[in-house]
Amino acid sequence: MSDQTKKSNFRKIQQFSTDYSPANISQYVSERTGMNIVVVDKKGPEISGYFALATEILDDSGSPHTLEHLIFMGSKNHPYKGLLDRLSTRAYSNTNAWTDTDHTAYTINTAGWEGLSRILPIYLEHIVLPTLTDEACYTEVHHVDGEGNDAGVVYSEMQAIQNTSDEILNLHARRLLYPENVGFHYETGGLMQNLRVLTPERIRSFHREMYQPKNLCLILIGEVDIDNLLKILDKFEDGILTEIPSPDTKFHRPWVESIQPPPIAKTVVEKVYFPEEDESTGEILIAMFGPNCNDPVDMAALGVILFYLAGSSLSILESTMLDKEALASSISYDFDPRPNSVIWLQISGVSTDKLEFVERRLFDLLSQVSSEPLDMSYLIDCIHRQKRHTKLKAESSVSFFATRIISDFLYGKRDGSTLKNLSSIKEYEILEQWSDEGWRDFLSKWISNAAHISLLGTPSIKMADELEADEDDRITARTKSLGRKGLKKLANDLEAAIAKNDEEIPSTIMEQFPIAGVESIHFFQNTTARSGWAKKLGVYSNEIQEVVNSQSNLPLFIQFEHLPTNFVHITLLLETSAVATNNCPLLSLFLDIFFETPVIKNGEKIEFKEVVTKLHQDTVSYSINGAESLSHSEGLAIQIQTEPEKYSTAIEWIHTMMFESIFEEPRISARLDRILASIPELKRDGDNMANAIDAVIHFDNKSIVKARSTLVSATFLEKTKELLATDPKAVISSLEALRNALFTFKNMRVLVIANMTQLKNPVDAWKPLVEKLDKSEELVTIVKPFQRFSPDGQFPGGRGLVIVPMPTIDSSFCLATAKGPRLLTDPIIPALTVTISFLEAVEGPLWTSIRGKGLAYGTSILFDNNGLLQFSVYRSPDAFHAFSAAKDVINSFITGTTKIESHAFEGAVSSIVSDLAEKRATMIEAAKSHFINGVINGVEEGYDFNLLQKVRSITPEQMKAVMEDYLLPLFQPGKANVVVTCAPLLKKGIIKGFKESGFKVQTHELSSFTESYDSVDGRRNR
């Protein structure tokens, strides 16, 4: 029988459409192996694949997590480390993976079906038939280096999180929730002490047990050729049948056929310590069992009731505990979908001496809520809001379907009946019919009267000191025991393992895998129209432009992007150059309070709770933040998503909050308390602090990047809080000055993304917002980051190494900064783009030299045309070693010791194609990208596609010149500033390395980086 007529071994279980988004879902199962397939047909340039396996283990060995890394090290017929990723780049694909407690998922994002169809069988073979060599386990999981230090990619990852407050509390909660015979009891990422003794055979055994096709679900989202897909999978199965356990062998389905956890016998409240220098604030983590994840009505009800309780400033927990009583900085919630779902409540920024009181207060409030009539009007609003939010996510987020399908694969019925629940969101209509009594019964059963685990996370400097001392003693003892010969042997063992892993991939393999064609990549085609000042950038000729032209000649800068979306996405971009320097650090408070104030409407005061209630009713979401997502770090963005019929209402809300809000001392005080209470938690994050220090060093006081950074705003807002108590008028006056400086006609640019045929008066609806503003002045030029550089930003290199020890972290983070191009029109951009793509490729030069040798979890070269280039090291056991290795890599290409081979160059170009598809993966992102290019970056139409043509013609000599002129300075004393945050134990070795490389060194505490600004009353902060 020919391939054309041969019947597929995959049986279609069902096919259905969703009634809330333009998606069709097909489900298949293999009659031979039991492999599952779910295809979500959605339009767009990118196809997203999620290959999920249910993974259950009854220990802390980390075996599930290690496989997430080892799978990429080679397969039976492709036994070369890095081959999968190198071939993926030639297929316009990016691969990744994650490990959760109950599953491991391997991902791929591909531009077009042709590329995915080529790489899919190779990827699947890596998952089902990996090599899992001893050498790969040695470098990827754990080893001891020649200096006696623990290393390995997985080990470095877990080292960075094991002693954080989040990890300590979460694991302790699961230890109490689940007995030892239930897999959720364990840390599937692996604990450091277990990873140090984990054997390759244990990993292989776990793979044999769990990585069977019948335990694998392929989820593909995008424009998929299903007939071709089934042929590919049939052929793949032909090649693995003799290699896998017999499909007829009885298989224990993880989680579903395992022992289920017993109910929580009684409530437990425990104090749990975590290492921290600042003992002033702690946090509370609460866990309890919830409804079955296969019940869509109960799960939707859970989402609604949690939002009702803690989802906004209207909710009882937030308004009482945060605003009125100032007991914490935030209350958040989450739930893990399982047969016995887990409900999580987290209270952050709690004064350490009030932890017990706050935990009791929470449950007193919950009992009160469940014993009194609910605010049914607000509850119905919550239902409607959750429904709108679900529809928006289904349209704009690929992960919406992926997470739900994975959950169904893990816990749903194999006949497809539970997956079919995805066809509608009728559960929200059912919930609208629930009575007050029904809702309170639900709340009592699952939350307020439920037995639970409450952990009082308590900071401890003693614990921080003990952990540091214990680790120091352990490594010292081991180094002494090994001696010089033992350390030399370990260095040789590592070198041998790396050599084995890095065996050269035959060029014939790459040649047999040509670059995929681009014909199957279907980019979104949006229609653009412009109004007012936007027309100065050029006017389009299309039907939508004609509609816009037929409106009044309003001068407001508006760019419209017409797409077949069910929602309206409004962005009002604001310039900040008119804000007085001494007011810049007040922006954190201003943005936080913007949608949380009373207003005066038609001479009548409307309290903030009614304002927020109406905002919830009239929008899907709303926010005001820095405009980083629009590539404009020195700007602000007011963003509202709403339904087309409420377009003018949303604009009216923007006007109301800009010009009719009232700043009152009680609201200011409440929001200030919350912001300040959140600071200690932010200061525990090494990566966050490295970036905050970097901003203080490289930007001047006029920069809102610097002013809004954690370290600057924390000090300034402390002073503001003090002033508020003695002179509230001074604080209010400064907030009014901020408002007046920001909300002027000349600062405004608008982006509207919508189905324009559904909008009434797309231009004229903006008239009320600007009618009273001075429209005579020209628009303010968009400020570029380099215009806000400090002397250190203009001329990097003078600082050398700035190292900040942090007892809250066990690893190190590094950020090196040097000069870079300032504009996308700089002629160096094509060569720089392809060179960075080449160096950063998965299994490329930096990856193999740093992550591949266990020197860091990851590195990246950061470049966003702001005038600076940056090299980042993330989660390293020794940031200097990773930094030095990167320098050696770049030097090797400059000197010609290492050649830029053609296949790697082709892969770099292909990665740029896939990055472009990812940047435009959804309709909304494609429209935003068009706005960013034309308005923010000021480049010509089709810039991204023209760049693709230019990078293809870049030569190796041009790449070497870029490395020497732009990238090597990142590693050179006098040309780069380097910020390192690290565990105190690592400080000495890192300083030694940088000093020997010629860098001058400064050691500081975090408190050193609280830059002086005039305070809100004009006094100088010191």
UniProtKB/TrEMBL annotation:
Residues 60-147 form the Peptidase M16 N-terminal domain. It comes from the Eukaryota. InterPro entries: Pept_M16_N, Peptidase_M16_C. It comes from Blumeria graminis f. sp. triticale. Residues 198-375 form the Peptidase M16 C-terminal domain. It holds the Pfam family Peptidase_M16. This is BgTH12-03935.
